[in-house]
Amino acid sequence: xxxxxxxxxxxxxxxxxxxxxxxxxxxxxxxxxxxxxxxxxxxxxxxxxxxxxxxxxxxxxxxxxxxxxxxxxxxxxxxxxxxxxxxxxxxxxxxxxxxxxxxxxxxxxxxxxxxxxxxxxxxxxxxxxxxxxxxxxxxxxxxxxxxxxxxxxxxxxxxxxxxxxxxxxxxxxxxxxxxxxxxxxxxxxxxxxxxxxxxxxxxxxxxxxxxxxxxxxxxxxxxxxxxxxxxxxxxxxxxxxxxxxxxxxxxxxxxxxxxxxxxxxxxxxxxxxxxxxxxxxxxxxxxxxxxxxxxxxxxxxxxxxxxxxxxxxxxxxxxxxxxxxxxxxxxxxxxxxxxxxxxxxxxxxxxx
Amino acid sequence: xxxxxxxxxxxxxxxxxxxxxxxxxxxxxxxxxxxxxxxxxxxxxxxxxxxxxxxxxxxxxxxxxxxxxxxxxxxxxxxxxxxxxxxxxxxxxxxxxxxxxxxxxxxxxxxxxxxxxxxxxxxxxxxxxxxxxxxxxxxxxxxxxxxxxxxxxxxxxxxxxxxxxxxxxxxxxxxxxxxxxxxxxxxxxxxxxxxxxxxxxxxxxxxxxxxxxxxxxxxxxxxxxxxxxxxxxxxxxxxxxxxxxxxxxxxxxxxxxxxxxxxxxxxxxxxxxxxxxxxxxxxxxxxxxxxxxxxxxxxxxxxxxxxxxxxxxxxxxxxxxxxxxxxxxxxxxxxxxxxxxxxxxxxxxxxxxxxxxxxxxxxxxxxxxxxxxxxxxxxxxxxxxxxxxxxxxxxxxxxxxxxxxxxxxxxxxxxxxxxxxxxxxxxxxxxxxxxxxxxxxxxxxxxxxxxxxxxxxxxxxxxxxxxxxxxxxxxxxxxxxxxxxxxxxxxxxxxxxxxxxxxxxxxxxxxxxxxxxxxxxxxxxxxxxxxxxxxxxxxxxxxxxxxxxxxxxxxxxxxxxxxxxxxxxxxxxxxxxxxxxxxxxxxxxxxxxxxxxxxxxxxxxxx
Lengths: 352, 607
Prior knowledge:
Chain A has helices at residues 38-52, 68-71, 90-100, 112-116, 120-128, 173-180, 193-205, 231-236, 288-300, 318-322, 334-337, 340-350, and strands at 60-64, 81-84, 105-111, 133-139, 142-143, 149-150, 184-189, 209-215, 263-267, 273-278, 303-311. Chain A is α/β, with parallel strands linked by helices. A nine-stranded mixed beta sheet of chain A has the order 2-1-3-4-8-7-11-10-9, sandwiched between helices. Chain A has a two-stranded antiparallel ribbon with strand order 5-6. In chain A, helix 3 (90-100) packs parallel to helix 5 (120-128). The relative contact order of chain A is 0.12. The two termini of chain B are 16 Å apart. At the A-B interface, strand 2, helix 3, helix 5, helix 10 and helix 11 of A face strand 7, helix 7, strand 9, helix 9 and helix 10 of B. Strand 2 of chain A pairs parallel with strand 15 (447-449) of chain B.
């Protein structure tokens, strides 16, 4: 049984926000992810973001698909309704939820498998629909819950747990999102709280589709044959059977703190290096061509660009497109929705 | 057998030639003359070029099932001349375009040659007009041959061409040309002809899909998501058509949202998201869509989310016959999705019931917190039916089920004697109380999930809890049996131990078949199923009869299987009576099937 409640007691002097709430009020149940998982860092950033923005937690809806990332919404905002739907289908569920009530804040949490493979179609179409939501991908390049298979965001030639190189090109979700017309596109790193926090806040504030691709190392399966912390190594160093992994070494959260306009190397749990480049004031995020160009040029050098990559200041959402009422549709009284018997007489007459 | 106000006319034309609207005008004119008609559009999965047919049965007695044996064939498609000719009954008529000479190898029918192409070529210069008005020329000839009321036809054409007066004049000109030609060349009217009647007065002519779409407007649905698939597409379009008119706020904004999704998975996902958030939400699809939606149906079942799904069934398996009718999704819908699942199904038998049951489906879904499927089919959904007008009781409130407001949440423990938990069975009816996102700052939030959960919606891998929760959901099905519409039982003879069970679009064929059997001295009691799960009335009817014909349109006797499994009816007394060629059932099929089983000698004599 993996539901673990957190004690609600806290220090009386904890800082409070404008709503009189503490950070603890924005937490969820205990995380059941591996210790040191990047996802937990993102969870912490979401809690911090909502706390700082004075958001009433019950006015937020958390929606996810299936996978390690999609479990994460249980670990934040326990006062919010959440919906852990089916694999790759978070976008459609969020679309319906948003259509029903435009007044809530929608945070969709997905993973790289959930978005870039099984859910790629739904991802593309929710971008096209301009749904007013924050779509956050916790991107670790692999399938965690099924034990380490490559995902479609994994870099080409990156070695698998059996030492075979990934023969396929990676899907770059940020490029796709820009190309499909997302209004807000950013990339960050789970360990860079200084960058991640304002990006989450900006994404939540944005009216329209806000996409956040957060690179989040998998402590367990982000393996490399030369690494002492690879899947093979861990398996060799515990007494488990061939196909079973029952020991996961606790690891430290990986962090990165670096200035705009600079690059930094991050050493992942498996010893691999991730090179991040933070865009600076010289990058005009309103220029989608420039954004794609920056991503591609850096990718060619093996560098991952982070920061606010693209923003369309003309904020449009699905309700604008559909021209729906300003009230949430779920709050319109039945008396206004049901035309009644008199109107039906008119319809009958026209069908005679 | 055929005669005044009792005949079948069939139009054999080419898809995309504009014949559909002309043929509809004929049916509508007869209907407005007060005569019951049942048009059946038999169309290909094609936009232009393939053969298409439109059959109109005219029956003042009100028998509206399809009837075999064509009295008058309007043969406008050389591709299908041979089969069209073969379908005409001895003593019948065949109207054709005689612009090209042709020999028809039958001497037991009367030919009605009209040089339609030549008439049009003489009258109009434009190729498109020449083609389109060909249809109106044969309509004109039919006015004369069948003594249809020209003034009524004018009204019908006028309604269809509202605002296009020029076109109206040209159309009526074509009608006159056909009419004049028929008057000069044939002895009119034919023995089969129309006469003003009262039987269809007060009825409406409408498709089930338009009715289903309208039901969602009346039910207060605000979220609709769908993916185009024949034959369900016109249901979502029907919703939009009526919502656009009747669902606009004072400041001109829409009080509904429609998303044409990227596929059926997304369509049902949107509906589930909307329903989770407290909007009445629905989707419409057909067989292949049901397969694609199955995973989500299991989620909605297990997480207890009230969506409505209209399944407009068509011939399967696989892509099957997209433009032909059937009832082949009974089992796949009753048990859609993996794991132990079971769904509430409603079986409308005509457009009037698509409206009433469609609206009821939303109440049931919210009352029971589970998906409800309205099991229509292509015949009901896409064909025009002469049916009772729609009714709405303004005094009856929509049943929104057990949804807690902020105040009710705060008072819950005091009122109910136990704290609220999303999946707690507080009332003993196995239906828990739900809360909507955004209701209360500190109470009522929970995590909806398709993973196993306890009574407080918390993740669990405890087998005891898992079993307890899915047992409670199964018990909810017992509650459902008390809420769903009761069957329509027709006891024709208390002493007869032979029964017949039917449902859906087969109603006209069965009712006519039972009358024919009665005239042949065979009496049967009948029960029309309106819903699954089966209630006590269904079980009682089965218990009271020793032999029961189960009439349905699929190969595997799916309703029979369901009765055996879910109502414990012994299979030995359930006689599978199956028609699954994709065409609407006929009374003759029912009569013959029953006679062949009960009285083989009578069946042989009748042949």
